[in-house]
Amino acid sequence: MYDPDNIFGKILRGEIPSTRVYEDDDTLAFMDIMPRAEGHVLVIPKTPCRNMLDASPEQVAAVMKTVQILSRAMMVAFEADGITLQQFNEAAGGQEVFHLHFHVLARHEGDRLWA
Ligand code: 5GP
Predict the structure, then answer these.
(1) Is the pTM of this model over 0.95?
(2) Which of the listed CATH numbers 3.40.190.10, 3.40.50.300, 3.30.428.10, 3.90.226.10 matches domain 7-107?
(3) Mutation test of ligand 1: which of 3, 5, 7 has the most ligand atoms closer than 8 Å to its C-beta?
(4) For residue 86, which of 46, 31, 41 has the smallest C-alpha distance?
(5) CA 79–ligand 1 middle distance (angstroms)
(6) pLDDT, tens only, 7-40
(7) Does residue 108 carry a catalytic annotation?
(8) ipTM of the predicted assembly exceeds 0.90
């Protein structure tokens, strides 16, 4: 079940601030408030969706398109050596905010990846 009062729903509606870095008709990307790397962006669909278990093929396609655009852009913007993608589903899977999102993290040689 999707609860529209989740924090990313509020960001989408402009009810709480965020640092937006990319947007198209179907998706929004913004900086994570507690970054685990210098470049840590979250990509979400604009339509209601709890997580990957709940997503339509169209939502997955739209989000993954933006994830790839952001990954390529962050390699340049953060002079990164690599990119980590993370995505969690349900509380037992590590999900804390129940609106589908992908983490995109810019990585540099020598980074501790799982800190
Ligand atoms: P997950 O659900 O994938 O475990 O993690 C949710 C992510 O959302 C965390 O990395 C957390 O720092 C981020 N987050 C939580 N609240 C906010 C917020 O109000 N604004 C932004 N930009 N990120 C948030």
Answers:
(1) yes
(2) 3.30.428.10
(3) 7
(4) 41
(5) 24
(6) 999 999 999 999 999 999 999 999 999 999 999 9
(7) no
(8) yes
